[in-house]
């Protein structure tokens, strides 16, 4: 989906929500979008690991990591698995690692930053619950679009 331009989406759909600017674009796809699947976790990417192993065609995983800067919720192996399973991308309210490898992966990835430490695997987290950060509530089944200009959310596909 390289034809996504969030400024154009905002112009055409003035009612869509715009996430506060906070994310950097790390993935091999600069623009991506799709149906939202949410994960809520804190310094434990067990649920992210489970989800990237599922089919993700047309979907974007929105990960609420509580904004933690102490561990990475996505690394190169999980990013590669997500790409293999057709995920359009991930928007992570937290950190990632292996940024050079993820930048070469056919996957959209936006995150707060990078951190070299992996998370612990305790099996903690919630799947497909509403999550809120950046001034927006992300709901499973709604739609998200992201590019170098920002991230927008809509109740319906645009």
UniProtKB/TrEMBL annotation:
Mg(2+) binds at residue 98. GO terms for biological process: regulation of RNA metabolic process. Keywords: Lyase, Magnesium, Metal-binding. It is an enzyme of class 4 (lyase). Substrate binds at residues 75-78, 97. CDD domains: RraA_family. Its EC number is 4.1.1.112, 4.1.3.17. Its cofactor is Mg(2+); a divalent metal cation. One of its GO terms (molecular function) is ribonuclease inhibitor activity. It catalyses: oxaloacetate + H(+) = pyruvate + CO2; 4-hydroxy-4-methyl-2-oxoglutarate = 2 pyruvate. Pfam families: RraA-like. NCBIfam families: NOT-MenG, PRK09372.1, PRK12487.1. Belongs to the class II aldolase/RraA-like family. Homotrimer. Catalyzes the aldol cleavage of 4-hydroxy-4-methyl-2-oxoglutarate (HMG) into 2 molecules of pyruvate. Also contains a secondary oxaloacetate (OAA) decarboxylase activity due to the common pyruvate enolate transition state formed following C-C bond cleavage in the retro-aldol and decarboxylation reactions. This is 4-hydroxy-4-methyl-2-oxoglutarate aldolase. It comes from Hydrocarboniclastica marina. The lineage of its organism: Bacteria, Pseudomonadati, Pseudomonadota, Gammaproteobacteria, Alteromonadales.
């Amino acid at each position: 989906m390289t034809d996504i331009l969030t400024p154009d989406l905002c112009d055409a759909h003035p009612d869509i929500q715009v996430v506060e600017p906070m994310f950097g674009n790390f993935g091999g796809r600069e623009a991506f979008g799709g149906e939202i699947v949410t994960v809520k976790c804190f310094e434990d990417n067990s649920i992210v690991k489970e989800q990237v192993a599922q089919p993700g065609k047309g979907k974007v995983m929105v990960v609420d990591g509580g904004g933690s800067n102490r561990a990475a919720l996505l690394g190169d192996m999980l990013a590669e698995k997500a790409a293999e399973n057709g995920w359009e991308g991930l928007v992570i309210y937290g950190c990632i690692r292996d940024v050079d490898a993820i930048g070469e992966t056919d996957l959209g990835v936006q995150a707060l930053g990078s951190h070299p430490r992996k998370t612990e695997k305790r099996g903690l987290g919630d799947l497909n619950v509403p999550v809120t950060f950046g001034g927006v509530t992300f709901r499973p089944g709604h739609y998200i679009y992201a590019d170098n200009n920002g991230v927008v959310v809509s109740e319906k596909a645009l």
